[in-house]
Specification:
Layout: E1 2-7, E2 27-32, E3 34-43, E4 48-54, E5 62-73, E6 79-85, E7 90-92, E8 98-106, E9 113-123, E10 126-140, E11 150-153, H1 183-198, E12 203-206, H2 208-214, E13 218-221, E14 224-226, H3 230-242, E15 247-250, E16 261-265, E17 271-275, H4 279-299, E18 305-307, H5 317-329, E19 336-339, H6 342-347, E20 354-357, H7 359-364, H8 366-374, E21 378-379, E22 381-383, H9 402-414, E23 418-421, E24 449-451, E25 456-458, H10 461-482, H11 484-494, H12 505-519
Parallel strand pairs: 2-10, 11-23, 12-15, 15-18, 19-20, 20-21, 22-23
Antiparallel strand pairs: 1-3, 3-8, 4-7, 4-9, 5-6, 5-8, 9-10, 13-14, 16-17, 24-25
Length: 521
């Protein structure tokens, strides 16, 4: 049987064969409070089964787990490696390469130094033994909640597409066979939070109206609503208890792109839309923003609060209208937005505190966004479907998964301090970006996979790569405080922008090792 290893940035298909330079030797470079990973690859002339991996002697402060590489196939017929499956065993056809990901969690208490970690792969053709060298440096990464880099996904907590006006408490479509707000549902929310922590997500995107409406909130007068925060509180508390969050971000409630209406709650406690610039919209928005502000203040969450107002506004008058109300009712709370038009960015100057331009929107005028930073505003970037050309970094499944990691290197080179990817778990089978075979933007709507049998989610290659990119950004950020020219130079060897980058996975790993060596001097 052929057995060899590759680093986590390498893309390995079922058809990938062992090369003349491939071996079972690898060195993983890690800080403390960090996860590092690798791929073990197996191939044989005949069929065989893999039944597990053991780690006979783990050093103190280091945890280990393994996941089988699994695949997703779209209408182009290619089985793309992306799913990391926790199944107990896997059958491997003849002349097919099977990947096994080994993930090592290096704790804050791990000692620095080189550690040789043996592992045994159990197969029906016999056991295969090898070892990995883990180089732990005397450098500690911050927890996500303390990270200087913001990381957020649009998160589907309450239904297939979040705020849908439906209070039926139907099961999440097609994947988890239990009711919304059942015990199983809350257990799944805890699993989501743990997954977000592992992926270094530190901004929780909240569809607040769904929880207020389902919790029993209702309109009670011309300018009065009774707000019930019980469900929302339980949701936030669940994520704070199981995750590691710096921001609680209220998702946009104005109609995306076109504006004109804002989602609300009527006298029957049902979803409705109020037309902006009319009295009902003014009254509703003032009541909602005031209630959120006061409640978050009471709960001690106000320093974490970020408001989004209208997703991807193509005009600015509705966003400015909501921003003026927020200034009155939520003093000091920052408001920001994903922006898919540079004209909208310019139109919101003086109103927007957190600019989140899409990658190609940022790239059309980086100097403008650097000027906004100089003026005290925050600049993140985001990806949502576009840009889809293959010379742009993005998180599509049919691009190398290392692109998700390289995005964060480009962010550092450009001085960008956060990233939003619109889809965490939008698994629709008939959308342009879901699990269905005809998806145009392959994988854009999700970074984890449903694992209904275990009441949790499965990680992806792209999710691991994203996390490693944030770890790299943190290392660059730490080095910039110590040796800014060195940090800039190392980043420039990997990614200068979202279209100017290397796809050399060996160089990428070497640059991480160099960062750690410089930081530990």
């Amino acid at each position: 049987m052929f057995m060899w290893v590759r680093n986590s940035a390498a893309r390995v298909y079922k058809s990938t064969r062992k090369g003349p330079a491939d071996s079972t030797s690898i060195v993983l470079h890690s800080a403390k409070n960090m996860t590092v990973s690798m791929q073990v690859l197996l191939r044989e002339y005949g069929d065989f089964d893999v039944t597990g991996v053991d780690f006979p002697a783990l050093p103190d402060g280091v945890g280990a787990k393994y996941r089988y590489q699994d695949y997703i196939t779209y209408n182009d017929g290619t089985p793309y490696p992306d799913i990391l499956s926790p199944k107990k065993s896997v059958h491997v056809p003849a002349q097919s390469t099977q990947g096994i990901w080994l993930l090592f969690d290096v704790s804050r208490t791990a000692s620095a130094g080189r550690k040789v970690i043996p592992y045994v792969v159990h197969t029906s053709a016999g056991d295969l033994s090898a070892s990995v060298t883990l180089a732990v440096y005397d450098v500690t990464l911050p927890d996500p909640c303390d990270s200087a880099f913001g990381h957020e996904y649009f998160f589907n907590a309450v239904g297939q597409f979040g705020l849908d006006g439906d209070r039926s408490h139907a099961p999440l479509p097609g994947f988890y066979d239990f009711d919304r707000y059942s015990g199983e549902w809350w257990a799944l929310m805890a699993e989501y939070a743990k997954a977000m922590k592992a992926l270094r997500v530190n901004s929780l995107n909240i569809t607040v109206l769904s929880f207020l409406r389902d919790g029993g909130s209702t309109r009670v007068g011309e300018k009065e609503w009774r707000f019930e925060f019980g469900l929302l509180d339980r949701f936030i508390e669940c994520f704070l208890a199981n995750g590691s969050f710096r921001y609680l971000t209220i998702g946009s409630i104005i109609r995306s792109v076109t504006g004109e209406t804002i989602g609300g709650i009527d006298y029957e406690g049902k979803h409705c839309n109020y037309r902006i610039f009319e009295p009902d919209a003014d009254a509703w928005t003032e009541a909602l923003f005031t209630a959120i502000y006061r409640h978050f203040e009471e709960k001690g969450w106000l320093p974490m609060l970020v408001m989004r107002l209208e997703d991807e506004p193509h005009t600015t008058e509705y966003w400015k209208w909501a921003r003026d109300i927020a200034r009155r009712c939520m003093p000091g709370v920052p408001c920001g937005e994903p922006l898919d038009m540079h004209e909208s960015s310019e139109g919101l100057e003086g109103y927007c505190d957190q600019y989140v331009p899409r990658l190609e929107v940022y790239a059309c005028d980086p100097a403008y966004y650097k000027a906004r930073q100089a003026a005290g505003d925050t600049v993140w970037c985001y990806s949502c479907c576009f840009p889809e050309e293959p010379w742009w970094l993005n998180k599509f499944i049919d691009l190398p998964h290392s692109y998700a990691r390289l995005i964060k290197w480009a962010c550092f080179s450009q001085g960008i301090t956060g990233f939003l990817h619109w889809g965490f778990n939008y698994w629709s089978m008939d959308s342009l970006y879901g699990l269905g075979g005809a998806a145009r933007f392959k994988g854009d709507g999700f970074i984890v996979y449903p694992d209904a049998g275990n009441g949790t989610v499965m990680m992806s290659n792209r999710g691991i790569s994203t996390t490693e990119g944030i770890e790299d950004w943190e290392l660059l950020h730490l080095l910039a405080a110590k040796a800014p020219e060195a940090a800039t130079a190392i980043a420039a060897r990997v990614a200068r922008s979202f279209t100017d980058f290397t796809d050399d996975d060996v160089l990428l790993e070497a640059c991480r090792a160099e960062l750690l060596e410089l930081l530990s001097e």
